[in-house]
Amino acid sequence: MNDEDWAIDPDGVPTAYYLTGSREANGRFTYYTADAGYDFLRGSSYKAGAFVGWTYYGQKSDSIGCIQLALPYYPCFGGSENDNRTVHKRTVGSEDANWNALRIGLTAESVLLDRWRLSAEVAYLPWTDFHGRDNHLYRETTTFLDQRGSGGGGVQLEGVLSYFITDTFSVGVGARYWARWTSRGSEDFGSGRNGFGTFHSANDARYSMERWGTFLQASYKFD
């Protein structure tokens, strides 16, 4: 994880730039999607349809260690003495991001040869909602940033190639790409237990996420 910060003078002019790097640990993500749709084209070896639904994506991760990337001789802030020698042993931060979005899309499926099936879907996200918390733990007083965003949009693409081992059981390999973003957002800074000292710090925040990869799946169809 890279963390960028700018020091700004009272006139709003940047005076310094800081960039630190940390290792990620204990990361996990959760997602679900619920759709309702209708196949408007259907044949013996293909079908195509449209759907509308809702999708959720959440990600939590911890960052361990700290190294200066922009100013190699500048210490990573933390603790009463800013002891840079022990930073690599400690958890320095955590991220909690949650996305909800409406989705509208098209889906298609075709049978290839005897037991092969190719399916694909594309979804447009006309509205997104984001909330997250960025915790800074390597400080004398724990600080955090509460983040909110909405509006924006996104896209979800997915394709799966499946093989039917039997008439009802199949295995497949797929690829997907997800992206979403907000058009407006805010950020509140807090410190201490239960947010003591919280104050509003930004109205022009923007948030975005991008994820892509491959996956394996198994499916059983009930007659």
Mean pLDDT: 85
The name of the CATH superfamily reads: OMPT-like
What is the number of domains? 1
Helix content: under 10%
| E-strand count | 11
Second CATH tier, the architecture: Beta Barrel
Percentage of residues in DSSP E strands: over 45%
State the secondary-structure class: mainly beta
Shape: elongated
- How many alpha or pi helices? 0
CATH class term:
Mainly Beta
Unreliable spans: 78-86
Order of helices and strands: EEEEEEEEEEE
Topology (SSEs and partners):
Elements: E1 2-8, E2 14-42, E3 46-68, E4 91-112, E5 116-136, E6 143-151, E7 153-164, E8 169-181, E9 184-191, E10 199-202, E11 208-220
Structure commentary:
Strand 9 and strand 10 form a beta hairpin. Helices cover 0% and strands 72% of the residues. Strands 1, 2, 3, 4, 5, 6, 7, 8, 9, 10 and 11 form an eleven-stranded antiparallel beta sheet that branches. It has no helices and eleven strands. It has one domain: OMPT-like (Lipocalin), CATH 2.40.128.90. The chain is mainly β.
Comma- or semicolon-separated keywords:
mainly beta, 223 residues, Lipocalin
In short:
With 223 residues, the protein is mainly β. Helix content is 0%, strand content 72%. The chain has strands at 2-8, 14-42, 46-68, 91-112, 116-136, 143-151, 153-164, 169-181, 184-191, 199-202, 208-220.
